[in-house]
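Before surveying the methods themselves, let us examine one representative protein, pairing a chain with its fold in token form.
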Amino acid sequence: MQAILALEDGRIFKGLGYGHPGECQGEVVFNTSLTGYQEIATDPSYAGQIVVLTNPQIGNYGTNQADNEAAKPFIEGLIVREFSPISSNWRSEQVTDEYMERYSVPVLAEIDTRALVRHLRTHGVMRGVISTLTSDTDALVAKARAIRKMDGTDLARVVSTKAVYHFDENDSRNQSGDPLLSATVDGPKLHVVAFDFGIKQNILRMLTREGCRVTVVPAETSADDVLEMKPDGVFLSNGPGDPEPVDYAVKAIRGMMGRVPVFGICPGHQLCGLALGGKTYKLKFGHHGGNHPVKNNATGKVEITAHNHNFAVDPESINANEVELTHVDLNDNTLEGLRHKTLPLFSVQYHPEAAPGPHDSHYLFKDFRSMMEEWKG
């Protein structure tokens, strides 16, 4: 099956189609992770995006339910160099090609992904269309140019849960079989309210590992509604899109600051920055991968971290008298973490629950529990 990628600037890539036969559109970004294609595909933060994977061989260990970060894939489409037609792993429950077809995700393979990634690094992320339906490249380029830009787009309310739900160590989605994810805290249970801007399941697992029971709420939940639940802490999740249109969440954070401990990651971090009076901006091609070096300013150590974001907080817009800048990306000096100097609030841009490198950043969840215990005590 022939397939075409058409970018908004007119660049065309032709290859073979797998997964769902048809057409998809979105912002084209690249991810440098060596493994975890299923976790990437099911991360709600990728809503509205077509993902190019730089690892040349994808699909070779298949898919399974335990590795899902959400109930289904959220990527619009997938682009790879080689796409395996078989699964070679004992954990596999379904061939990746069948999995992508099952969830209507088109896959473009057998193209020069190095050339595509270099094009995106040079010119920045851009809108694109994958199609197996037509060879009319002019029409596909026109479709790409008509796609709504990510800037100014609120996708949090699109991917968020529509109803409140609860998650604890007994939840079936928490049964990964991994002994490292079992509860490690013997103390009393703490109640965390988690805002779902596109939350990943492993975040919920990490919170339960720290002895928390979690109430997950829709993105548009107000501060008053959260505080009525009497939480010991509030978690602000990852998610897709531009944080600036998510003004309802900024308002909620301002209403909770100083009244309950707050911990945010990825867009949760960006929303904290906005709530503190800062500004955000869009990166040229974003940070997507499992190999980003981030320096912890407090310890001087470098953490190899997982990233998935297109926007960042402008450190110059943050009031240094009130907020400490705790982490910095060593690739481009973007702000990766902040902590309020007097209020119980901190956040990081990266994904500490993924912990892809030798320095485990799970300590941030322990920090969150310690902050809640101190506040409660």
